[in-house]
Amino acid sequence: MELLVALFTPNRKIRRFSYSFITYLGFADTIGAPLNTQSQRSSARPTGHTRRLPMPLPMPTFLSSPRARLRTVLLGGALLAGSWTSHAGAADYRFVTEQFAPFSYETQGKAAGPMTEVVESLCAAMKKSCEIQVLPWRRALDMAESGEVSGIFSMLRSPEREAKFFITQPIVRSAYSFVAPANAGWSYSGPASVKDRSIAVYGPSGTSAVAERIIKEAGGGEIQMEVANDALLKKLSVGRFSDKTVGFINRDVGQDIIAKQGITGLAFVGDGAQILYGIGLSRKSVTQADADAFDAALATLKASGTIKAILTRHNLQTAE
Protein backbone atom coordinates (compact mmCIF):
# COMPACT_ATOMS: atom_id res chain seq x y z
CA MET A 1 0.00 0.00 0.00
CA GLU A 2 2.83 2.40 0.90
CA LEU A 3 4.37 1.83 -2.52
CA LEU A 4 1.10 2.81 -4.18
CA VAL A 5 0.89 5.95 -2.04
CA ALA A 6 4.42 6.85 -3.16
CA LEU A 7 3.12 7.07 -6.72
CA PHE A 8 1.28 10.24 -5.71
CA THR A 9 4.04 11.99 -3.79
CA PRO A 10 4.90 15.53 -4.98
CA ASN A 11 8.53 14.40 -5.31
CA ARG A 12 9.07 13.50 -8.96
CA LYS A 13 12.10 11.29 -8.31
CA ILE A 14 10.19 9.13 -5.84
CA ARG A 15 7.21 8.90 -8.24
CA ARG A 16 9.44 7.78 -11.12
CA PHE A 17 11.30 5.24 -8.99
CA SER A 18 8.17 3.77 -7.44
CA TYR A 19 6.49 3.37 -10.83
CA SER A 20 9.60 1.72 -12.26
CA PHE A 21 9.74 -0.57 -9.23
CA ILE A 22 6.10 -1.58 -9.61
CA THR A 23 6.53 -2.12 -13.35
CA TYR A 24 9.57 -4.34 -12.81
CA LEU A 25 7.71 -6.51 -10.34
CA GLY A 26 4.89 -6.99 -12.80
CA PHE A 27 2.27 -4.87 -11.05
CA ALA A 28 1.92 -2.03 -13.58
CA ASP A 29 -1.04 -3.48 -15.50
CA THR A 30 -2.90 -5.18 -12.64
CA ILE A 31 -1.72 -4.56 -9.09
CA GLY A 32 -1.23 -7.87 -7.37
CA ALA A 33 -1.40 -9.99 -10.57
CA PRO A 34 0.99 -12.97 -10.83
CA LEU A 35 4.33 -12.30 -12.43
CA ASN A 36 4.65 -13.35 -16.08
CA THR A 37 7.08 -16.23 -15.61
CA GLN A 38 8.64 -18.31 -18.35
CA SER A 39 6.31 -21.23 -17.64
CA GLN A 40 3.26 -19.03 -17.99
CA ARG A 41 4.52 -17.66 -21.29
CA SER A 42 5.24 -21.10 -22.73
CA SER A 43 1.80 -22.47 -21.79
CA ALA A 44 -0.08 -19.50 -23.20
CA ARG A 45 -1.82 -20.00 -26.55
CA PRO A 46 -2.03 -16.77 -28.53
CA THR A 47 -5.30 -16.08 -30.31
CA GLY A 48 -6.24 -13.60 -32.94
CA HIS A 49 -7.35 -11.21 -30.20
CA THR A 50 -4.37 -11.69 -27.90
CA ARG A 51 -1.79 -8.91 -27.63
CA ARG A 52 1.79 -10.19 -27.56
CA LEU A 53 3.46 -8.88 -24.42
CA PRO A 54 7.08 -7.69 -24.45
CA MET A 55 9.67 -10.05 -22.99
CA PRO A 56 10.10 -9.12 -19.30
CA LEU A 57 13.47 -8.70 -17.63
CA PRO A 58 14.97 -11.86 -16.10
CA MET A 59 13.72 -12.48 -12.55
CA PRO A 60 16.42 -11.88 -9.92
CA THR A 61 17.08 -14.78 -7.54
CA PHE A 62 15.96 -12.78 -4.50
CA LEU A 63 12.48 -12.43 -6.09
CA SER A 64 12.07 -16.11 -6.93
CA SER A 65 9.25 -16.84 -4.46
CA PRO A 66 5.92 -15.05 -3.90
CA ARG A 67 6.82 -14.43 -0.25
CA ALA A 68 10.15 -12.84 -1.24
CA ARG A 69 8.41 -10.65 -3.79
CA LEU A 70 5.83 -9.50 -1.26
CA ARG A 71 8.50 -8.79 1.34
CA THR A 72 10.48 -6.74 -1.22
CA VAL A 73 7.41 -4.73 -2.24
CA LEU A 74 6.55 -3.92 1.38
CA LEU A 75 10.12 -3.03 2.26
CA GLY A 76 10.49 -0.83 -0.81
CA GLY A 77 7.17 0.85 -0.09
CA ALA A 78 8.11 1.52 3.52
CA LEU A 79 11.43 3.03 2.49
CA LEU A 80 9.80 5.22 -0.13
CA ALA A 81 7.05 6.34 2.22
CA GLY A 82 9.64 7.10 4.89
CA SER A 83 11.70 9.15 2.45
CA TRP A 84 8.62 11.06 1.38
CA THR A 85 7.57 11.77 4.97
CA SER A 86 10.98 13.00 6.08
CA HIS A 87 11.42 14.94 2.86
CA ALA A 88 8.10 16.74 3.08
CA GLY A 89 7.51 16.93 6.82
CA ALA A 90 10.93 17.52 8.35
CA ALA A 91 10.74 21.31 8.04
CA ASP A 92 8.09 24.03 7.95
CA TYR A 93 9.90 25.70 5.02
CA ARG A 94 12.39 24.40 2.48
CA PHE A 95 14.73 26.76 0.65
CA VAL A 96 17.18 26.32 -2.19
CA THR A 97 20.12 28.49 -3.17
CA GLU A 98 23.21 28.25 -5.38
CA GLN A 99 26.99 28.38 -5.17
CA PHE A 100 27.18 32.18 -5.27
CA ALA A 101 30.01 33.20 -2.97
CA PRO A 102 30.24 35.37 -1.00
CA PHE A 103 26.42 35.46 -0.65
CA SER A 104 25.74 31.72 -0.44
CA TYR A 105 27.80 28.57 -0.83
CA GLU A 106 28.26 25.05 0.47
CA THR A 107 30.73 24.07 3.21
CA GLN A 108 31.20 20.45 4.28
CA GLY A 109 27.93 19.49 2.64
CA LYS A 110 25.89 22.25 4.30
CA ALA A 111 24.59 25.59 3.06
CA ALA A 112 26.57 28.54 4.40
CA GLY A 113 27.21 32.23 3.79
CA PRO A 114 25.55 35.49 4.89
CA MET A 115 22.27 35.00 3.01
CA THR A 116 21.98 31.51 4.49
CA GLU A 117 22.53 32.98 7.94
CA VAL A 118 19.85 35.60 7.29
CA VAL A 119 17.31 32.92 6.31
CA GLU A 120 18.20 30.83 9.36
CA SER A 121 17.80 33.90 11.60
CA LEU A 122 14.39 34.60 10.04
CA CYS A 123 13.21 31.06 10.66
CA ALA A 124 14.43 31.20 14.27
CA ALA A 125 12.64 34.53 14.83
CA MET A 126 9.43 33.05 13.40
CA LYS A 127 9.90 29.85 15.43
CA LYS A 128 9.75 27.79 12.24
CA SER A 129 12.02 24.96 11.14
CA CYS A 130 13.76 25.47 7.80
CA GLU A 131 15.94 23.37 5.51
CA ILE A 132 18.35 24.92 2.98
CA GLN A 133 19.94 23.07 0.06
CA VAL A 134 22.61 24.29 -2.37
CA LEU A 135 21.88 23.33 -5.99
CA PRO A 136 22.73 24.51 -9.51
CA TRP A 137 20.75 27.71 -10.12
CA ARG A 138 18.55 26.47 -12.95
CA ARG A 139 17.48 23.38 -11.01
CA ALA A 140 16.90 25.44 -7.86
CA LEU A 141 14.82 27.98 -9.78
CA ASP A 142 12.71 25.25 -11.39
CA MET A 143 11.97 23.71 -7.98
CA ALA A 144 10.99 27.08 -6.53
CA GLU A 145 8.83 28.09 -9.50
CA SER A 146 6.96 24.77 -9.42
CA GLY A 147 6.32 25.00 -5.68
CA GLU A 148 8.42 21.94 -4.86
CA VAL A 149 10.21 24.11 -2.28
CA SER A 150 9.12 27.17 -0.31
CA GLY A 151 11.62 29.66 -1.62
CA ILE A 152 14.94 30.57 -3.19
CA PHE A 153 17.71 33.10 -2.64
CA SER A 154 19.34 35.39 -3.60
CA MET A 155 16.77 37.01 -5.89
CA LEU A 156 16.49 40.35 -7.69
CA ARG A 157 13.11 42.01 -7.97
CA SER A 158 11.67 42.16 -11.50
CA PRO A 159 8.17 41.91 -13.05
CA GLU A 160 9.01 38.42 -14.35
CA ARG A 161 10.13 37.22 -10.92
CA GLU A 162 7.23 38.86 -9.08
CA ALA A 163 4.76 36.93 -11.23
CA LYS A 164 6.01 33.72 -9.62
CA PHE A 165 7.38 34.83 -6.27
CA PHE A 166 6.62 36.98 -3.26
CA ILE A 167 9.93 38.82 -3.00
CA THR A 168 10.91 40.09 0.42
CA GLN A 169 12.13 43.58 1.08
CA PRO A 170 15.78 43.91 -0.01
CA ILE A 171 18.45 42.52 2.30
CA VAL A 172 21.88 43.09 0.76
CA ARG A 173 23.25 45.70 -1.65
CA SER A 174 25.79 44.94 -4.35
CA ALA A 175 26.63 46.25 -7.84
CA TYR A 176 27.38 45.12 -11.35
CA SER A 177 30.82 46.63 -11.89
CA PHE A 178 33.38 47.07 -14.63
CA VAL A 179 36.82 45.55 -14.12
CA ALA A 180 39.90 46.14 -16.25
CA PRO A 181 43.68 45.64 -16.15
CA ALA A 182 45.09 47.99 -13.53
CA ASN A 183 47.27 49.72 -16.14
CA ALA A 184 44.49 50.14 -18.72
CA GLY A 185 43.99 53.83 -17.96
CA TRP A 186 40.20 53.53 -18.41
CA SER A 187 37.24 53.92 -16.10
CA TYR A 188 33.48 53.76 -16.54
CA SER A 189 31.78 57.15 -16.49
CA GLY A 190 28.47 56.28 -18.12
CA PRO A 191 27.18 54.39 -21.19
CA ALA A 192 29.06 56.65 -23.63
CA SER A 193 32.39 55.48 -22.20
CA VAL A 194 31.86 51.92 -23.52
CA LYS A 195 30.83 52.92 -27.05
CA ASP A 196 34.12 51.67 -28.52
CA ARG A 197 34.60 48.82 -26.03
CA SER A 198 33.93 45.10 -25.90
CA ILE A 199 32.33 43.95 -22.63
CA ALA A 200 33.25 40.45 -21.47
CA VAL A 201 30.50 39.11 -19.20
CA TYR A 202 29.26 35.76 -17.88
CA GLY A 203 26.04 34.86 -19.60
CA PRO A 204 23.34 34.55 -20.51
CA SER A 205 22.63 35.96 -17.04
CA GLY A 206 21.15 38.90 -15.21
CA THR A 207 24.58 40.52 -15.41
CA SER A 208 24.77 40.14 -19.18
CA ALA A 209 21.25 41.59 -19.54
CA VAL A 210 22.40 44.76 -17.76
CA ALA A 211 25.54 44.89 -19.92
CA GLU A 212 23.40 44.64 -23.06
CA ARG A 213 21.22 47.49 -21.82
CA ILE A 214 24.31 49.67 -21.28
CA ILE A 215 25.57 48.86 -24.79
CA LYS A 216 22.17 49.80 -26.21
CA GLU A 217 22.20 53.12 -24.37
CA ALA A 218 25.76 53.77 -25.59
CA GLY A 219 24.77 53.26 -29.21
CA GLY A 220 27.82 51.12 -29.84
CA GLY A 221 30.16 48.51 -28.42
CA GLU A 222 29.72 44.74 -28.23
CA ILE A 223 29.09 41.93 -25.78
CA GLN A 224 31.42 38.95 -25.41
CA MET A 225 29.79 36.11 -23.48
CA GLU A 226 31.97 34.01 -21.16
CA VAL A 227 31.17 30.62 -19.62
CA ALA A 228 32.19 31.50 -16.04
CA ASN A 229 33.15 34.51 -13.94
CA ASP A 230 36.48 33.06 -12.81
CA ALA A 231 37.49 32.27 -16.40
CA LEU A 232 36.60 35.85 -17.39
CA LEU A 233 38.81 37.34 -14.67
CA LYS A 234 41.74 35.03 -15.38
CA LYS A 235 41.69 35.79 -19.11
CA LEU A 236 41.47 39.52 -18.41
CA SER A 237 44.37 39.28 -15.96
CA VAL A 238 46.78 37.56 -18.38
CA GLY A 239 45.90 39.64 -21.44
CA ARG A 240 43.86 37.08 -23.35
CA PHE A 241 41.42 39.80 -24.47
CA SER A 242 42.05 42.78 -26.73
CA ASP A 243 43.15 46.12 -25.24
CA LYS A 244 39.61 47.41 -25.80
CA THR A 245 37.95 44.67 -23.69
CA VAL A 246 36.71 45.25 -20.15
CA GLY A 247 34.97 42.85 -17.79
CA PHE A 248 31.52 43.24 -16.21
CA ILE A 249 30.70 41.27 -13.07
CA ASN A 250 28.96 41.35 -9.72
CA ARG A 251 31.48 43.34 -7.70
CA ASP A 252 31.32 41.21 -4.53
CA VAL A 253 31.47 37.98 -6.51
CA GLY A 254 34.47 39.30 -8.46
CA GLN A 255 36.33 40.40 -5.33
CA ASP A 256 35.71 37.00 -3.73
CA ILE A 257 37.07 35.14 -6.78
CA ILE A 258 40.13 37.41 -7.04
CA ALA A 259 40.97 36.92 -3.35
CA LYS A 260 40.43 33.14 -3.27
CA GLN A 261 42.19 32.37 -6.57
CA GLY A 262 45.03 34.86 -6.22
CA ILE A 263 44.27 36.72 -9.44
CA THR A 264 46.38 39.86 -9.82
CA GLY A 265 46.68 42.93 -12.04
CA LEU A 266 42.99 43.91 -12.10
CA ALA A 267 41.06 46.89 -10.78
CA PHE A 268 37.37 47.71 -10.43
CA VAL A 269 36.78 50.85 -12.47
CA GLY A 270 33.14 51.85 -11.98
CA ASP A 271 29.66 50.53 -11.22
CA GLY A 272 27.24 49.96 -14.08
CA ALA A 273 24.20 49.30 -11.88
CA GLN A 274 23.28 49.00 -8.21
CA ILE A 275 21.49 45.76 -7.27
CA LEU A 276 19.48 44.63 -4.25
CA TYR A 277 18.99 40.98 -3.31
CA GLY A 278 16.10 39.53 -1.34
CA ILE A 279 14.42 36.15 -0.82
CA GLY A 280 11.91 34.74 -3.31
CA LEU A 281 8.95 32.87 -1.78
CA SER A 282 7.15 30.61 -4.22
CA ARG A 283 3.57 31.66 -4.94
CA LYS A 284 2.73 27.97 -5.49
CA SER A 285 3.72 26.86 -1.99
CA VAL A 286 3.62 29.98 0.22
CA THR A 287 0.56 32.10 1.03
CA GLN A 288 0.36 35.87 1.15
CA ALA A 289 0.07 35.59 4.94
CA ASP A 290 3.32 33.58 5.05
CA ALA A 291 5.06 36.17 2.89
CA ASP A 292 3.83 38.98 5.14
CA ALA A 293 5.13 37.09 8.18
CA PHE A 294 8.58 36.76 6.59
CA ASP A 295 8.67 40.47 5.79
CA ALA A 296 7.58 41.39 9.30
CA ALA A 297 10.28 39.18 10.82
CA LEU A 298 12.83 40.65 8.43
CA ALA A 299 11.89 44.20 9.43
CA THR A 300 12.31 43.25 13.10
CA LEU A 301 15.76 41.74 12.47
CA LYS A 302 16.80 44.84 10.54
CA ALA A 303 15.66 47.11 13.36
CA SER A 304 17.53 45.04 15.95
CA GLY A 305 20.78 45.22 13.97
CA THR A 306 20.91 41.45 13.39
CA ILE A 307 20.97 41.70 9.58
CA LYS A 308 23.64 44.40 9.60
CA ALA A 309 25.83 42.36 11.97
CA ILE A 310 25.62 39.30 9.69
CA LEU A 311 26.45 41.23 6.51
CA THR A 312 29.22 43.31 8.12
CA ARG A 313 30.91 40.14 9.33
CA HIS A 314 31.08 39.05 5.67
CA ASN A 315 32.14 42.50 4.36
CA LEU A 316 28.81 43.10 2.61
CA GLN A 317 26.53 46.14 2.58
CA THR A 318 22.98 46.27 3.86
CA ALA A 319 20.26 47.26 1.39
CA GLU A 320 19.52 50.51 3.25
Give a written overview of the molecule.
- The model is unreliable at 1-8, 24-51 and 77-88 (pLDDT under 50).
- Strands 1, 4, 5, 6, 7, 8, 9, 10, 11 and 12 form a ten-stranded mixed sheet that branches. Strands 2-3 form a two-stranded antiparallel ribbon.
- The chain has 320 residues and is α/β, with parallel strands linked by helices.
- It has three domains: 2-42 and 55-89, no CATH class; 93-167 and 279-318, 3-Layer(aba) Sandwich (D-Maltodextrin-Binding Protein, domain 2); 173-275, D-Maltodextrin-Binding Protein, domain 2, CATH 3.40.190.
- The chain contains twelve helices and twelve strands.
Q: Any chance you could write out the topology, listing elements then pairs?
A:
Blueprint: H1 2-6, H2 12-24, H3 38-43, H4 66-89, E1 93-97, E2 105-107, E3 110-112, H5 114-126, E4 130-134, H6 137-146, E5 151-156, H7 159-162, E6 165-167, E7 172-181, E8 198-202, H8 206-218, E9 222-226, H9 229-237, E10 245-250, H10 251-261, E11 266-282, H11 288-304, H12 306-313, E12 317-318
Parallel strand pairs: 1-4, 1-5, 8-9, 8-10
Antiparallel strand pairs: 2-3, 5-11, 6-11, 7-10, 7-11, 7-12
Quick description:
This protein is α/β, with parallel strands linked by helices. The protein has helices at residues 2-6, 12-24, 38-43, 66-89, 114-126, 137-146, 159-162, 206-218, 229-237, 251-261, 288-304, 306-313, and strands at 93-97, 105-107, 110-112, 130-134, 151-156, 165-167, 172-181, 198-202, 222-226, 245-250, 266-282, 317-318. It is elongated and about 65 Å long.
